Amino acid sequence: MQSAVRRLSVCQLAVGVRASTTRAAATKNFQLQKVYKQTQTDVLCQLRKSCSRSALLAQKSIPELIGVNQLCRHTHTHTLSQRGISKSKACAALYSRYSASTIMNSYCKELDLMDYDIIGFDLDGTLLRYNLQEMTPLIYNVLKKYLVEVKGYSPALLSKDLDMDFFQKGLMLDGVRGNVLKLSNEATILRASHGTRLLSDEEIENIYGAERRWDMATAFYNNPLSTWNGPASEQMRTLLDYFDMPSALVFAQAVDVVDDESGPAGKPKEYKVWGDLLEALMHNYSRDNFSNDSSLYFKAMRAEPHRYVLPSSAKLLAWLEQLRNADKKLFLLTGSNIDFADLTATQALGPDWRNYFDFIVTYAKKPGFFTQKRAYLNVDDVAKRELPNTELSPMEYLQPGKIYAQGNWHQLHQSMAKLLHKDASKARALYFGDNIIQDIYTPVKHSGFDTVAIAEELFLMEAKDYPFKAVLHSKFWGPYFNNGCTPTLWSGFIANYAQICISSMDQMAQTAPTERLVCNNVNGFYPMVPKSLECSNLTTSWYGGCV
């Protein structure tokens, strides 16, 4: 199996204890009879706190688990009991990451890179990191300037202060109402603002009902790709990465300006700010504007890439080499066009950045790359542009060492499997990325391979000297992963779809590729769950992994 979920002991229980069918005996003797990927988080929370109590709860849960339809696509179970199945026989059973070699009392995710033949990487926010203290103000200012100079907003917008405390990745814009939302792992509204003004619980319920739900948010929760394009995308936006994150403040301040100009009785029934901001974003990041100075963002990036792009560590570069020396096939898959990708990759990885990868795909148009059969185009890597009329046929194999644009996962997977001399069904793949929908949810849900989530917000827990705390630590919205005891939407997606979640690729590079990474929690946060999530009601229905 390609998934990597392993049971680890939270408390040292004797291996020889016998399972009991009564609550009284469970406090003394505990033995798991069946292990399922689908776990009960309340049990796991207690496992971390009290051995005796967790044993009681887990034993109580087993009858409820037995016979339940398994939600994961490739779940295997082992039984260790006194029914004639010895531990040695269980270990020899069909390979599963549910190790039956030791009696344990918790389920934890793990990652073993040696289980994969193919390992891929996103570029922005993954293999390379940005100086958020510099980049977020740049994006914030160029978006405001576009709204004033092109869309005719009041110059008062330009005088608004840069309030970094309003920044948070993962917020959702309710464009019609002019509201910004923070959602729970079940898509209920945890916090909300109208413009930059925080709404009270009473105001939230007056707008969205007692259940604090918005139909667009619920649609996104049920199927994120259903709102990616079309009418829904004109009403809402989820701010999934650090390129999008400053949009929340620009949107909110623009709503404030509209309200101030309208007066108390004249506030619009439907705000048009989101449509205007979307146009600004598209202009800002359009590949057509990379070299013509039309995009002030690209102009600044070209002038001073060292100011905005952090150099990757020598340890990370050595780690990539170690993967290749271990006969892994590596690919780079980025949504950036070749010109911007070359600029940033050169700054982060060095002028020979191409040599780290067997295959490179630019302008990949994720998440459609994983769900559609879009044709590949050849790339002129000298002129840094796509070559027109060079579409590859769907049956054509990609050539190692070349750079391609657009394309689809199926063809890339087939090409790498051929390089490995394997059938594609036997060539197991793993992908690292920071965009929870494009890089984590979609590959797992629609292409059936494993992913590792990059969440720089974990640095807030890990590193006291983290330099971008002022950008990512928000008192206004609270922690990225939770609100009080309630997990956020993104904690839920990470728990359900990511193999593990790490703070950065540099964290991966601290461990040799041959060494197994083991989390201390079922939800995959490595090396440990954020403290604020320790006793939340975060549940895990593991969808990752394939045979």
Automatic annotation (TrEMBL):
MF annotations from Gene Ontology: 5'-nucleotidase activity; metal ion binding
Pfam families per the UniProt record, alphabetical: 5_nucleotid (PF05761)
Sorted UniProt keywords: Acetylation, Hydrolase, Magnesium, Metal-binding
Domain of life of the organism encoding this protein: Eukaryota
Similarity annotation: Belongs to the 5'(3')-deoxyribonucleotidase family.
Protein name, per record: 5'-nucleotidase domain-containing protein 1
The organism of origin for this protein: Drosophila mojavensis
Gene name of the record: Dmoj\GI12272
